[in-house]
Design brief:
Length: 74
């Protein structure tokens, strides 16, 4: 995720709390927040797709959907 994006979001948040934002800044803030959310989702999906689960027998299960097929015993 780009640091400049987060820096600008934080600048606008600080300004909103102190002096307020004009219409252009409110619109910019919304666009930046949406970009941040999308980047966050992409990173999360990528992390989840590359996560493996190992069951109690040592079997590697690649996907969460596959893990549900192999319930563990407590």
């Amino acid at each position: 995720m780009e640091q400049g994006l987060l820096d600008r979001i934080n600048e606008l948040a600080h300004k909103a709390k102190t002096v307020g934002l004009n219409e252009a800044e409110i619109s910019e803030r919304e666009v930046l927040r949406n970009q941040y959310r999308e980047a966050f989702r992409r990173n999360l999906i990528s992390s989840l797709e590359n996560t493996v689960i190992v069951d109690e027998k040592g079997n590697v299960i690649r996907r969460v959907a596959d893990a549900k097929k192999h319930p563990h015993k407590d």
